[in-house]
Structure formats: structure tokens, C-alpha cells
Amino acid sequence: MKSKIVIDPKILVGKPVIAGTRIPVYLVLNLLAHGKTIQEITEDYPGFNYGNGKSSCFYYGCWRHYIARSNNS
Fold this sequence. Notes:
Blueprint: E1 5-6, E2 17-18, H1 25-33, H2 38-44, H3 50-71
Antiparallel strand pairs: 1-2
């Protein structure tokens, strides 16, 4: 299965982005946090789809879990 989130130093200085776009994960999460729906984001950003939104949330959840575990060590 191909990853929907990529980290490449040549794209936005290595920030996690939606594969095949320059849409950073933090932007998607910020839009969702401020009340946008995934449907609204798909309308505003070509190349973005529902699966990308789910992947962004999953990535963030995993990252938060990793940071929490690292801080408890």
C-alpha cells in the first residue's frame, strides 16, 4: 500500500505532506480544528480527498502517541 503522507526534505523542508501535493498535514489539521469539513477541504484543495483527511488525522494521532511515550521514558 502506498503511503498517503510523505516526508521529503525537498518538499516544504521535510514537513509531512499529502503525497503528490504540497498540502502539509498541519494545514489539514488546522482547517479541521477551525471547523472546516473534509468535504470543504476537498473542494478548496485539488488533489485532496477524504482518504487524505483520514490519513492526516491518523498520522497526527500516531505522532502524538510517540511523543507522549518518548516524554514518559
